[in-house]
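The data are set out underneath:

___
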Amino acid sequence: MNNAWLKRRVGLAIGMAILLGGASICGAEASSDDLENYDLGETVVTATRSKLEEKKVPMSVQVIKADEMKKLGAYNVRDALKNATSLDVSRNGTSMVGNNVSIRGMGSTETLILVDGRRIAGEDSASTMNAYELDRINVNDIDRIEILRGSGSAVWGSDATGGVINIITKKNKPQGGYAGTHLGSLESSVYGGFSTGDLGKLNMNFDFNLTKVRKEDKEGSTNMFGPRRNFSFNGDYRFNDHTGLEFGAGFMKEQLTSLSGGTTAGTTTSYYDNNRLDYHVKFYGFDKKNDWEIQSYYDRLGKVGRTRTETAWDDFNHARYSTWVNEAKNTYRMDQNNTLTYGMEFKNQKAGGTRFANADGGTRTEYYLGMSSPYGSASQNSYSFYVEDEMKLGDKLFFVPSVRFDHHDSFGSEWSPRAGLTYNLSRASRVKVNYGKAFRAPTIFELYSNMIHTPIARMRVVVTGNPDLQPEKSTNFDISLEGEKGKAAGKLTYFHNKVSNLIDSELVSRSFSGGVMTILNTYRNVDKATLQGVEAETRYKFDKHWNARANYTYLDARDGNTNARLTGRALNTGTVELSWTDAKKDPWTATLYNQWFQNYLTSANKESYSYSLTNFVVTKNIGNLSLYAGIDNLFNKKFDASDSIWTDGRIWRAGAEWKF
């Protein structure tokens, strides 16, 4: 990276921070009243797997709380995350199916999604991994979302090469309940829940969400539309003041449909019946020195898909994914200057279906609706150990080294070290530095896939797995300057990620026989990439009525072989938000925010697009009743059908929730 580039980007970021009061990074002291009024000390757990104040954590962490989601009228988790710094949750190109989950330009396969620190079983191909998960989670049961930007493998293991999104749900609620509804152009829902409060030593919560995804049409092809249902139950039994048992279960079912026009057989209709079950139990306790937990959880996703032309059934897909994890963790406070967090984990993952082969290469035959397809299954076992030390070195320096060892039966062992430090320039300003290594284990689909697909007449696409794949690896570095002054807060970060052994699909052969072309692909470790850039974040509280905040990311993501820009990413992205409240007991609030994307390079035809979306939301509390209404894409920004990018156009949303 040359000096001119760095000066331009850092200058732009600093200028943006100063514009909204970001002079906080200069290191001046802030009064205690100012810091209390503008709190950046949220306690987070995702970065270190221990409870730590956000200002002390060396890693780049962002917290989105439930009241922020309510203020924006978020109707699903993807909607709640759309303003987060360096996080892309946009739709997948023009398909209107699924979405990206990309942190700092790393692909969706390099982001680990957790619910209360637990992994989710889900699709594991490059095009489907994480693509649907954010829409499947009940947003109304969320307490906060923690986003870790940068390497997380030192404490979380595989899949956290780009970062971690940890969705933390509400627990131990007081007695009472809530009921509400969301209405809008994209989906509508009815939701609610009830908590028993403390029944002696027991507290139990029940929550549900019934959603209908609306149909969106684009030249005869549609999104996946239809009903989705979520039900969950969570409980906590306290044996005494220091130990307890947390337990729960959840169920999700979706019955979706999509239409594809323009095929030789006319309109093709695809049906997707998916269901998820999850269970967990955790024994926990604490004393003056220790904070420990022992947990076991299981998550399963089942999928039944089928496709029909206008005259007959054409294809089907059955799949089942499961994850079973047993883990133990303890945070041990050695003394006032050292806190040690250590743990172990045993994980079993299974996947099977009509797109898989057995680990030995064999299959059986699956029959459905008069059709047949080969069916295979495989499993992957791993165990891991990790340790981390939070070291206070004097009054100014906080140092956090950590390392994790993972052993997978598919490829062997991997070490993931990380070191981060926070140096306090003053009470209101600090420098943070991180360096670490991370990895992503090849998925069961990449190892043992056996997919045979006929996208058009006289063409057959075959994708086979590669059991000799090695894990993807990355080296991550970032340095930040952050601080608070008066009513302002700001943060400026430079990050650099170098990735090797990237797993990608590679053409093996093309053959033509009996009038049918067969295209054979397999997975190989073929690619490398370098991703670097600058992030700027700033907030300013004008008075008790007005607040402003903004973020900006410059991303230079390049192929390590050709130095060409990586597709599916914008060069510059940013959000500017202005909010107002009347600051009364039952307040009105209004929020206007603009999201902009400059030089977004598509993967379909490598065209570049620049655009912005303006959104507006109003909320009102009336006692125990809360109301909201809003419009996204206020100026109705759309693209032509020939463009390889998609926006929803102007959409509306409204909702109401009553607490009792």
